Amino acid sequence: MHGPAMAGWLLVALCVAAGSYCLLRLRSSVEEQRGSAGGEALMGFGMAAMAVPAAAVPAPPRWVWLVYAAVFAGAALYALAPTRSSARGTAHHAHHLLGMVAMVYMAGAMAAAPGGAHGAHTAGGAPLVTGVLLVYYAGYVLRTGAGLLPRPAVAGPAGGGTATVGWGDRPELALACRLSMGIAMLAMLLTL
Questions:
Q1: 46 and 103 in contact (C-beta within 8 Å)?
Q2: DSSP string of the chain?
Q3: Is residue 155 part of a domain?
Q4: Is residue 84 part of a domain?
């Protein structure tokens, strides 16, 4: 990633943390949590690898970025399979597909840079595609962030008991994870 090294390493840490939490969600007993966790973990670790500051590692050969693009193209094809029927699931499914396509796009921009440099964000991509992705991810970050705002408490059951929820079953943590990855994608697109 082109830019200050500290910002790059913070972005790497954020993406690794998000990817790790998504791996934890794969072990959830709630099917809704497990459904998208694998793709989100792939996105988190993939963005972490892409966000490593250019000055920290030698520039990988061009074929590395082509393999990277192929992995995310395969994930995008997998995301095309219609597995969710609810409207919310369909919107989230489309978001995963767009995220995978954005990763293919960024890997392609890095592969197209002279020498396949890791700092290829300076090479840039197509301004129209980058602009559309920026607008989408800015809206996604704002909408997802609004979903984390506190809501008025709703009275619970008469018994007043609370069930213990595992770390992988917490929907607010999954939402925070998605918000973090959306912010990371937005930051990476800004450097493209």
A1: yes
A2: --S-HHHHHHHHHHHHHHHHHHHHHTT-S-HHHHHHHHHHHHHHHHHHHHHS-TTTSPPPPHHHHHHHHHHHHHHHHHHTS----SHHHHHHHHHHHHHHHHHHHHHHHHHHSGGG-TTGGGT---HHHHHHHHHHHHHHHHHHHHHTS--------TT-------GGG-HHHHHHHHHHHHHHHHHHHHT-
A3: no
A4: yes
Burial of 21 (0-12, 13-18, 19+ CB in 10 A): buried
Neighbours of 4 (CB within 10 A): 11
From the list 21, 22, 13, the residue with the least C-alpha distance to 51 is 13
For residue 48, the Cα-to-chain-centroid distance in whole angstroms is 10
Domain count, the chain: 1
What tens digit of pLDDT does each residue of 122-170 get? Answer: 556 688 999 999 999 999 999 999 988 887 766 555 555 555 556 556 6
Q: pTM surpassing 0.85?
A: no
Residue 162 within any structural domain of the chain: no
Residue at 158 is within a domain: no
Question: What span, in angstroms and rounded, lies between the C-alpha atoms of 48 and 62?
Answer: 18
Question: Which domain range does residue 183 map to?
Answer: 5-150+168-190
